[in-house]
Amino acid sequence: MDINITGKNMELLPAVQDYAVRKLDKINRILRKILDFDVELSQENTRSPQQHFVAQVTVNANGTLLRGEERGQDVYTAIDKVAVVMHRQAEHYKGKLYEKGRGTSLLRGVAPLPTTPPPPPEPEEIPETMEVNVPPRPKVVRTKNFTIKPMSIDEAVDQMELLGHDFFIFRDAVTSDINLIYLRKDGNIGVIETTPRK
């Protein structure tokens, strides 16, 4: 298991690195197949002193990603908080694996998945006399890279929940197509399937 620790806008002292390793190593006792930890510790100029330090952790557990981010008034507090979050996620994931081994569906009680996404709403017509204030277009400020592994919809839903996102991109294990699942406002799951251009 590799623990990769990087610092951003701060000096990464050996004592801080040792503390992070010691805290995160406890997660390895819960999940035996952890391949690596990516830990980013950063310092930000925020108004609240309790938010100055950020600890972000991504765990690769044999292809399944667990992620947590917490803030604190010092780097040790941020590490403590994110370690608690990651420990809880690891326990949750381990429980999912146990349920899956017993043949219990991860989608128990969830409505059937739609085969096609709902049509987009019709755009509203704007009267010619009405002024429209268009907000500035948002900028791309961060790019993330991750490997897409083949998985079933059940596994993709599980991964989305573990990451705490409301959408997830994955490669369908049967068709090899790149698909997207998303959490609908009604609490159910939607699937967007891609089709290659002809």
SSE map:
Blueprint: E1 2-8, H1 14-30, E2 34-43, E3 53-61, E4 64-72, H2 75-101, E5 150-151, H3 153-163, E6 167-172, E7 178-183, E8 189-193
Can you describe what's shown?
- The protein is an alpha/beta fold.
- The protein folds into two domains: 2-101, Double Stranded RNA Binding Domain; 150-193, SHC Adaptor Protein (2-Layer Sandwich), CATH 3.30.505.50.
- Helix content is 28%, strand content 27%.
- It contains three helices and eight strands; from the N terminus they run βαβββαβαβββ.
- It has helices at residues 14-30, 75-101, 153-163, and strands spanning 2-8, 34-43, 53-61, 64-72, 150-151, 167-172, 178-183, 189-193.
- It has a four-stranded mixed sheet.
- Helix 1 links the parallel strand 1 (2-8) and strand 2.
- Helix 1 runs parallel beside helix 2 (75-101).
- It is globular, with a radius of gyration of 21 Å.
- It starts with a strand and ends in a 5-residue tail after the last strand.
